[in-house]
Amino acid sequence: MKKLTASLLVLVLSSSIAVVHAQQKNDTIKTKEIEGVVVTALGIKREKKSLGYASQEIKASALSDGTTNTGNIGAQLSGKVAGLNVTTNNNFGGSANLLIRGVKSLGGGNPLIVIDGSPVNNTYTQEKNVDYGNALSDINQEDIESINVLKGAAASALYGERGLNGVIVITTKNGKGKDDGSWGVTLSSSINVGFVDKSTFPEYQTRYGAGYSQKFGTQGPGGLNNANFGADASWGPKFDPNLLVYQWDSFDPTSPNYGKATPWVAAKNGPVTFFNNPTTYNNTVTLEKGEKGKNISFTYDNMMMDGLMPNSHINKNTFSLKVNYDLTPKLHTSFYSTMTLQDTKGRSVTGYNDNTMSNFRQWWQTNVDMAELERAYFTNVNPALASAANNYGNVTWNRKSAGNGAPAYWNNPYFQAYQNYTTDRRNRNFSYAQVTYDLLDNISVTGKVSYDRSNLFAENRLAVGSIAQAFGQSGNDVSSGYARRDVLRTETNYDLMANYKFDITDDINVSGVLGGNIRRNYFNSVFGSTEGGLVVPGIYALSNSKKSPLASDENEFTTQTNSGYITASFDFFKKFYIDGTWRVDQSSTLPAGNNVYNYPSVTTSIIMSEILDTKSWMNFWKLRANYAEVGGTADPYMLTNNYRSAGILSGVGIYNSILNQADPNLKPQRSKEFEVGTEAHFLKDRITVDFAYYKTKTIDQIITLPVSSGTGYTGKVINAGRIDNTGFEVQLGLVPIKSKDFTWNIDANWSKNKNEVMSLYPGITNLLLNSFQGGVSLNARVGEAWGTLIGGDYVYLNGQRVIDPTTGIYQIKANQIIGNTTPDWIGGIRNSFSYKGFSLSFLIDMRKGGDIFSTDMYYGMDTGLYKETAIGDYRDKDVILPGVLPDGSPNNIALSQFTTGSNYGYETQPAKEFVYDGSFIKLREASIGYMLPKSLLAGTKIYDAKISIVGRNLWIIHKNLPYADPEAMIGGGINSYGWSIGSMPTTRDIGVNVTFKF
């Protein structure tokens, strides 16, 4: 991996620098001010050269022009920003996890999302084993003008308690219209089709069939064997086309094979044929008009997406309106509103239980043909046939026995997809109204109100005839049921601020903002389910419950934060800048005495190119440094114990036990950061470099610490823990060639973050964050980077694995450090070419390190699914596992592979064996575009037309995790780290985009 990555970098950079030198004579760029104005915290516009902290702006074209539309703008930031680690899973409509400059909180954390200066909700929602995505996916990418990533504490200090994890600042487009002042119309349309990347899906062995040993279990008519129906494994008898066997479909009256024994061979149609080619249609129309002092823009976007799994579909409609209007030369108004209406059906199940993908990756029979399963489902689910006798259409490969067709462990995958599906509706509205009045030439006052509302209604179904599984509020095993969740979130922000700018002398000035904010958040969630199953099949309602439903699980809270802030930015001779900010927050979720706290920052930058006059060869050089503090407040209801209703018994209300002891003396967590950096532009911007070094210390983390149950609790809420992050970030821009008709641009970024958990609590050295199958857990461990994987490892003697002399298999030592999910570094390289009307671009996205535990391999190697388990005559002979006996002598104990099954996987090997390096190199994006010449459009009403062929995830150039994508974790937030289990395969997506402007 290291050599390959280094070779790529050397090849790109060396060729680029050489061409830069050769092209200097053709350079037509004129000396100019660097990069102009960017949008920073609170929507404040600043000259980029004056900033004393690192930020990186991504224009809309770089976000969307080179890739297919993912439906989540967060995913399209991957590989484009130094210090921003984006993890995109493959869940249908799922989350994209964003992490800036490493994990700072023991519980993880995502950056704050801001639109035009107003914060918006980016909550990640996962209900049981379903990933409902993060709210960033509700943002219409057609509205976005640019995204500015505020990475460090100094950049985000003005957001106080919300600035701990950095800020993603989104600026929306203003209406422009045509040059003649008339309305402009833009029509965009695209279609994208996905194809399974087979390197992210199991490659099955095709030599052995169903069973846990190479024996048939029972005999059928005529002395012929029955297949091992109840075994959800493929460590069974060797395939032989001359051997006739009664298989699962021999007992399906609707099957052509009913009553027949069929040849014992590998399936012609394996699980990969279960998937569809996901297709996305996206259509957008924009109406806009603009002139000085007033502009308007209206956008309607429709996205229809069919997923990889059968019976999965998303229909999303987004409406946006933005109006800027000057009522008088001094009174300016702005209004923006966007509404997203999304209906989703058939989200993929995540995790272990009842996940079709876990079935395919861990517990499958290679003799089972998917085409036969599809036929069996669609035939038997017919109302004329569906009954208890055929499990209401759930005729599956995994029947309990020849005489019992009930599923032993797994439903028919088609029954699971078409009957046990989820649906959800999410309505999202974000709006703001703003008024600015110019009191004087150098003072203006702005008042603003913003409102963000998200309403999710999610339903989960378990059809009659399903295998019994944990379901609903009680978590009892039932074979049918219905559950629903209603979630409402709102956030309202009231802002009042004064902007000022004064010239102290002709060469010294000061500018800044004085303001205040009131933020109110409301949350309401209601969860209800049937109990004991459904009375009438197919009717999904809480009233169709066999038993009395439990009391609904209800949650509600309202929180408020009051804030004041002031900034001052001093400009000395356009060569030296110094900024200071101060913000004070008052939080309703902290106790009196601890609920008022402040966050300062100070930054400085020096324009060395002005001082040293280096413009002949280095047209811009800036040094910068800063120190800042940011933080975080507590979640609701952490100060006093609260009680949850468990229903009514004999007319008396009963309540659940309190498991976590509240802390009435909580204080806010704080993060302190120091940063230095430099930015330099050479050869009239043909080479640009931006470098940053930072060190962050986060203290007083608010955590729930496990305690002895003898205290009456299992956890205690406390302030504890310290995490340090130290890192480097590099951005590199090259223009190897720039002539009249041809331009080649290279944009590269690289970042490395070192994370360490410095302390937790006196006497405590480990905090459990998440638990995985196989006895593996994700932890924050003192002295280690956040994200330590703990599980079973081999016992070693002089570096050799020790064998248990009584069993002949490995001795295993539990609770050992077996990996860490933190990557060593991340980076990306984008090449862009333009020639006249043609354009070509591609993005290489890279990650080095970050360990992953594969539950799929842990179980799937034991059950004999993967090709590695059937190499040569491995299964047909006794095996002596490599290692030594406890006395140090070589192992000589032979194990039968014929009668006892696998000596791979979880039964003989520890979890450590299935921890893989999560490195990857991907061809993340690629596009070819053509802008039609104006001469071709003459005589039409079209004044601009472009067609592009785009692609995403076209090639995983390198990875170490077998049969899965190293990014494809089970969800967002804490679920996006270190666990590969039952993930959907990655698709190579190819699309065509066309845009017409009238």
From TrEMBL:
Gene Ontology annotations of biological process type: siderophore transmembrane transport
GO molecular function: siderophore uptake transmembrane transporter activity
Keywords from the UniProt entry: Cell outer membrane, Membrane, Receptor, Signal, TonB box, Transmembrane, Transmembrane beta strand, Transport
Keyword Transmembrane (UniProt): yes
GO cellular component: cell outer membrane
Subcellular location: Cell outer membrane
Membrane topology label: Multi-pass membrane protein
Pfam entry (one): Plug
InterPro entries according to UniProt: Beta-barrel_TonB, Beta-barrel_TonB_sf, Plug_dom, Plug_dom_sf, TonB-dep_OMP_SusC/RagA, TonB-dep_OMP_SusC/RagA_CS, TonB-dep_rcpt-like
Domain TonB-dependent receptor plug: 53-167
Family: Belongs to the TonB-dependent receptor family.
Protein name: TonB-linked outer membrane protein, SusC/RagA family
Species of provenance: Chryseobacterium oleae
